[in-house]
Amino acid sequence: MSRTLDKVTGRAKEAAGVLLDDRELAREGRIDQHAAELKGAIERVVDAVRSRIQRERHE
Questions:
Q1: Average pLDDT over residues 20-45
Q2: With contact defined as beta carbons under 8 Å apart, do 15 and 29 qualify?
Q3: First to last CA, the chain
Q4: SS3 state of residue 30
Q5: What whole-number distance in Å separates Cα of residue 37 and Cα of residue 11?
Q6: DSSP letter at 16?
Q7: C-alpha span between 40 and 32 (Å, rounded)
Q8: How many domains does the chain fold into?
Q9: Which domain holds residue 25?
Q10: What span, in angstroms and rounded, lies between the C-alpha atoms of 21 and 4?
């Protein structure tokens, strides 16, 4: 799934868990949201490394 979809799904799970008083579902939703944020951070690191490698090759 894309990061945005992961985040939206996580938020929906968290909201449903709160609404239904299901702590496990709410927790799972928060985990999904954090996983989406982590994916984004990893993607930014990978992009930065690729950019650095490209610059090094052209110097």
A1: 96
A2: yes
A3: 37
A4: helix
A5: 12
A6: H
A7: 12
A8: 1
A9: 3-58
A10: 25
